[in-house]
């Protein structure tokens, strides 16, 4: 009977094309020998390398940005700060999506300045020449403590934009129809 069970197990197990078989890595030889070309290995004519300076604070007010020394560094083609950007439509209710913040940093590593240079090492050196003055603000990291009275705000209020959700709960025209004695769902 034991012999019969072994025969049945072999009959039931289907034969797969790939499962349980050796995988042939077509790119393996190129990777092992160093012949594979990666994106970082490419060098195109007039190609520039970008490096971005991130905020060392989780929450801070930006007092000043001085990138003049980085602009003068040999090999640096351009330096972009918030002041160098052309005007663009900012979504103030989602400031995390801003290209570069000009007033307040909202998270650690938030990009503040970009450097373009002919060599990635030159761009990295230029980042060290940028001087940014911050006013550190208390970060809000505990959601329970954030709900307490007197807790620091995650971000500064911007005015009417921050009340957009509150206004969104008002149904247009309902007050007028109710004043006329009509139910609001009557057409």
Overall description:
The protein is of the alpha+beta class and 187 residues long. The protein has a domain at 47-155: Aldehyde Oxidoreductase, domain 3, CATH 3.90.1170.50. Helices cover 25% and strands 18% of the residues. The protein contains seven helices and six strands. The protein has helices spanning 2-12, 28-33, 68-72, 120-128, 143-146, 164-168, 174-179, and strands at residues 49-54, 60-66, 76-80, 104-105, 111-117, 131-136. The strands form two sheets. Strands 1-5-3 form a three-stranded antiparallel beta sheet. It has a three-stranded antiparallel beta sheet with strand order 4-2-6, with no helix packed on it. It is flat, with a radius of gyration of 30 Å. The termini are far apart. The mean pLDDT is 80.
CATH class assignment of the domain at 47-155: Alpha Beta
Average pLDDT reading:
80
* Helix percent band: 10-25%
Straight-line distance between termini: 80 Å
CATH superfamily of the domain at 47-155: Aldehyde oxidase/xanthine dehydrogenase, a/b hammerhead
Structural class: alpha+beta
Return the string of H and E elements: HHEEHEEEHEHHH
Return residue spans where pLDDT drops below 50 for at least 5 consecutive residues. none
Query: How would you describe the shape?
Result: flat
Sheet with the most strands? 3 strands, antiparallel
* CATH architecture assignment of the domain at 47-155: Alpha-Beta Complex
Output the radius of gyration: 30 Å
Which percent range describes the beta-strand content? 15-25%
Number of helices: 7
Give me the side-by-side strand order of the main sheet.
Answer: 1-5-3
Would you tell me which CATH topology of the domain at 47-155 applies? Aldehyde Oxidoreductase, domain 3
Annotation, overall tally of beta strands: 6
